[in-house]
């Protein structure tokens, strides 16, 4: 088994199968979207012909939706998965957020939460797609003033209640819209169906991966994750990999992609990308000696370079010319092909 090659293929980082950004997000189940600008490249680079305009079209039309969901952090989900994942993940995400609030000595009474949510919803209904500044103005008109930190928690409350989700895509600022208007397809699943769907999408797009990886990524408890795997039954199989103390059980789907690895390929991977953040243990593709080059202990992830799937350097987005540095191995090959792909996607 070559786990690196398999992850590149099944994460759609090489030999991409999909034409449309929304197809990628649907395949992945959910994608980390912490960095508002770079989440676009994270999706686009997994399509056959990366296009910023295609991403915007899918985002603005509600085929791709951004909200705080798993682990209380920003995620992209497809319109088809939005309501089932919200029902499944919101209770745990809300508990995480309330834990953060408690550590910051912030308390929001139920009455306040309901009152502010109504104002936020009405503002979104009136304007269609609104920024945080629009919310601040709407609250001020009603004589309500609060700091940005508290308002952010109110917005997360509204997201996890199914009231707000992402609005139109702007260059730099996040926007919000009424979820009922943005995501028309109200798919409903019972809990077991949703757990099985989440497990299937996780392993089909990130295999090989472990139970511990799935628990970390989903933010669900281990019993729920085991239940999702159990429901999938024989469509998942297990293979051991690694040596001695590093030997682990990895799950695969029956349709795992195995053919198409391209030797010598460089990838310019955005920060918070699923190639790293989708796993609890990242040592398969990132040497522990250099993990600090890719992320810190506070959960801040950097743009990274992969060569044949192994993380070996850093790069700087939003520049006119390629700026790259390597911390592992000798690299004489030219990164220009991948840089041109990144720059060209912004124009398409």
Word description of this protein:
- A hairpin with a 2-residue loop joins strand 9 and strand 10.
- The strands form four sheets. A four-stranded antiparallel beta sheet has the order 8-9-10-11. It has a three-stranded antiparallel beta sheet with strand order 1-3-2. The protein has a two-stranded antiparallel ribbon with strand order 4-5.
- Helices cover about 45% and strands about 15% of the residues.
- The chain has about 350 residues and is of the alpha+beta class.
- The chain folds into three domains: about 15-180, no CATH class; about 190-255, Winged helix-like DNA-binding domain superfamily/Winged helix DNA-binding domain (Arc Repressor Mutant, subunit A, Orthogonal Bundle), CATH 1.10.10.10; about 265-345, no CATH class.
- The protein starts with a helix and ends with a helix.
Q: Name the structural class.
A: alpha+beta
Query: How are strands sequenced across the largest beta sheet?
Result: 8-9-10-11
Q: Major sheet, described briefly?
A: 4 strands, antiparallel
Number of discrete domains:
3
Shape: globular
Q: Mean of residue pLDDT?
A: 94
Overall helicity: 40-55%
- Cα-to-Cα separation, first versus last residue: 37 Å
Radius of gyration using CA atoms only: 20 Å
- List how many beta strands DSSP finds: 11
The stretches of 5 or more residues where confidence is low (pLDDT under 50) are none
| Sequence of secondary-structure elements | HHEHHEEHHHHEEHHHHEEEHHEEEH
Number of helices: 15
Estimate the strand proportion.
5-15%
């Amino acid at each position: 088994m070559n786990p690196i090659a398999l992850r590149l293929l099944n994460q759609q980082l090489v030999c991409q199968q999909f034409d449309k950004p929304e197809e990628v997000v649907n395949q992945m189940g959910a994608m980390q979207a912490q960095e508002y600008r770079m989440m676009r490249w994270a999706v686009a680079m997994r399509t056959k012909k990366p296009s910023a305009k295609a991403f915007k079209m899918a985002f603005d039309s509600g085929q791709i939706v951004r909200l705080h969901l798993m682990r209380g952090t920003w995620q992209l989900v497809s319109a088809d998965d939005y309501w089932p994942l919200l029902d499944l993940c919101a209770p745990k995400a809300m508990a995480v957020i309330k834990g953060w609030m408690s550590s910051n000595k912030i308390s929001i009474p139920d009455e306040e939460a309901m009152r502010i949510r109504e104002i936020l919803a009405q503002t979104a209904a009136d304007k269609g797609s609104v920024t945080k500044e629009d919310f601040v103005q709407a609250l001020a008109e009603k004589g309500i003033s609060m700091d940005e930190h508290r308002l952010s928690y109110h917005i997360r409350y509204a997201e996890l209640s199914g009231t707000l989700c992402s609005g139109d895509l702007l260059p730099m600022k996040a926007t919000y819209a009424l979820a009922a208007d943005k995501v028309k397809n109200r798919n409903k699943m019972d809990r077991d169906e949703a757990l099985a769907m989440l497990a299937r999408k996780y392993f089909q797009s990130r295999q090989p991966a472990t139970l511990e990886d799935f628990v970390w990524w989903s933010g669900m408890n281990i019993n729920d994750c085991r239940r999702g795997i159990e429901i999938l039954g024989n469509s998942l199989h297990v293979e051991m990999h690694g040596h001695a103390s590093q030997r682990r059980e990895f799950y695969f789907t029956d349709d795992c992609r195995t053919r198409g690895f391209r030797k010598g390929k460089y990838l310019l991977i955005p920060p918070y990308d699923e190639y790293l953040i989708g796993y609890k243990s990242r040592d398969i593709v990132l040497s522990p000696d250099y993990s600090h080059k890719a992320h810190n202990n506070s959960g801040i992830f950097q743009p990274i370079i992969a060569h044949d799937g192994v993380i070996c350097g850093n790069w700087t987005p939003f520049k006119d010319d390629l700026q790259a540095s390597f911390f592992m191995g000798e690299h004489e090959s030219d990164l220009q092909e991948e840089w041109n792909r990144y720059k060209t996607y912004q124009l398409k």
